[in-house]
Write a structure and sequence with these properties.
The protein is α+β, with helices and mostly antiparallel strands and about 60 residues long. It has a single domain, classed as Alpha-Beta Plaits. The protein has two helices and five strands. β2 and β3 form a beta hairpin. It binds iron/sulfur cluster (SF4).
């Protein structure tokens, strides 16, 4: 499973950080910064799927599963 973050789509709601601080942090303006890009460790795959589905801007893509 790979996580692809589309920076241009992020509107800074912060939901990803609230749901999965293991995967995302926020910059000084509240926009998401992925802590993992590319291969997602197996133990974080469920979280990655959840944040992808719950990002209101569809900024987080999951590929390969
Ligand atoms: S939930 Fe989506 S739009 Fe909101 S900060 Fe995270 S990536 Fe950006």
């Amino acid at each position: 499973m790979k996580l692809v973050f589309n920076h241009w789509a992020c509107q800074g709601h912060g939901r990803c950080f609230e749901l999965a601080p293991e995967l995302f942090t926020l910059d000084d303006e509240g926009f998401a910064v992925p802590m993992i890009e590319g291969d997602v460790p197996a133990e974080l795959e469920d979280k990655a799927r959840e944040v992808s589905q719950r990002c209101p801007e569809y900024a987080i893509e999951i590929n390969g599963s």
